[in-house]
């Protein structure tokens, strides 16, 4: 049975950003079709808990499906009138790409191509996808601008994200598909991924375990709160363009040790720190030039770092029931 109501397809809808994006889209009146393969890269129970919240909305339809499965994706397009796609499904993680490179090839390349083909076949009105700040690789110019050359990735993950941008450009040119890539910068917040710094640090400190501090603390990151990322993503979804790339970051580089200090202050506990060398695939600093995103999207990140960390910790304590620790 075909659903003739217009819908927006969000892949990776059980993921951190995909969950928050889907939730906000539903709250603002969109019908959302979610796709996620619920892979075990991190705790599947966390993904299912996010999905339980989304499934409470009658305008959300969910399919447990891998984007490598082209016939399965086609069935979804036959059942729903998908008018826009936001592809957030990908094998995530810079360090994991050194351990399991083929999972990145399958999801981030083959799966991405499947979605571009469906966008072409069904004449989708906008194709928005997650790129990454990691594409800047060995770029030493700061802040990172979308006008910089990004030909020096230092991880396979980054290389696949750069490949996505090139593939989208080709399809946009050949088939007149509006395509917008979003280079996300270190996203954090409630329901975050367990492999990300804030989650790892808060979890270890609360459980009185040491934390690993890479590059001996000489790291800086452009931490961007999830609500600001979702706002920028929706602005891109609602602004089809022939081909665009945007940085979505906070445009403020924060020292890693300052980041840890705020977490310690908010938890009321000091961390035991293992000072470690820079890891393969990591870069010492990221910071986004968001002038173009401000100008064309009206993107304006508003969440102070301490406030965002406080909201994450509040969620973490509640979700894991560890207020007494």
From TrEMBL:
Record bears the keyword NAD: yes
Coiled-coil annotated residue ranges, if any: none
Keyword flag NAD: yes
UniProt xrefs under InterPro entries: Epimerase_deHydtase, NAD(P)-bd_dom_sf
Stretches assigned to the NAD-dependent epimerase/dehydratase domain: 9-249
Keywords associated with the record: NAD
Protein name as catalogued: GDP-mannose 4,6-dehydratase
The organism of origin for this protein: Candidatus Desulfacyla euxinica
């Amino acid at each position: 049975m075909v659903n003739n109501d217009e819908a927006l397809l969000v892949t990776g809808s059980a993921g951190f950003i995909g969950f928050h994006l889907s939730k906000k889209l539903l709250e603002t009146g969109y019908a959302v079709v979610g796709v996620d393969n619920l892979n075990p890269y991190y705790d599947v129970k966390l993904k299912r808990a996010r999905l339980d919240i989304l499934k409470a909305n009658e305008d959300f339809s969910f399919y447990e499906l891998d984007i490598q499965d082209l016939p399965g994706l086609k069935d979804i397009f036959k059942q729903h009138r998908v008018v826009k796609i936001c592809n957030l499904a990908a094998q995530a993680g810079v360090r994991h790409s050194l351990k399991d490179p083929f999972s990145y090839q399958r999801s981030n390349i083959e799966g991405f191509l499947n979605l571009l083909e469906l966008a072409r076949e069904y004449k989708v009105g906008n194709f928005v996808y997650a790129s990454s700040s990691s594409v800047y690789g060995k770029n030493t110019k700061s802040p990172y601008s979308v006008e910089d050359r990004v030909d020096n990735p230092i991880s396979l993950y980054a290389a696949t994200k750069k490949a996505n941008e090139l593939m989208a450009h080709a399809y946009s040119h050949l088939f007149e598909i509006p395509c917008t890539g979003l280079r996300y910068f270190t996203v954090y917040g409630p329901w975050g991924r367990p492999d990300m710094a804030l989650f790892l640090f808060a979890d270890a400190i609360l459980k009185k375990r040491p934390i690993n501090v890479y590059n001996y603390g000489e790291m800086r990151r452009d931490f961007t709160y999830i609500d600001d990322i979702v706002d920028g993503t929706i602005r891109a979804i609602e602004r089809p363009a022939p081909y665009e790339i945007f940085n979505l970051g906070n445009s403020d580089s924060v020292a890693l040790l300052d980041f840890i200090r705020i977490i310690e202050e908010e938890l009321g506990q000091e961390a035991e720190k293992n000072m470690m060398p820079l890891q393969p695939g990591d870069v010492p600093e990221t910071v986004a030039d968001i002038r173009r995103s401000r100008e064309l999207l009206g993107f304006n990140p508003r969440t102070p770092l301490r406030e965002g960390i406080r909201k994450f910790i509040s969620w973490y304590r509640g979700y894991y029931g560890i207020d007494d620790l």
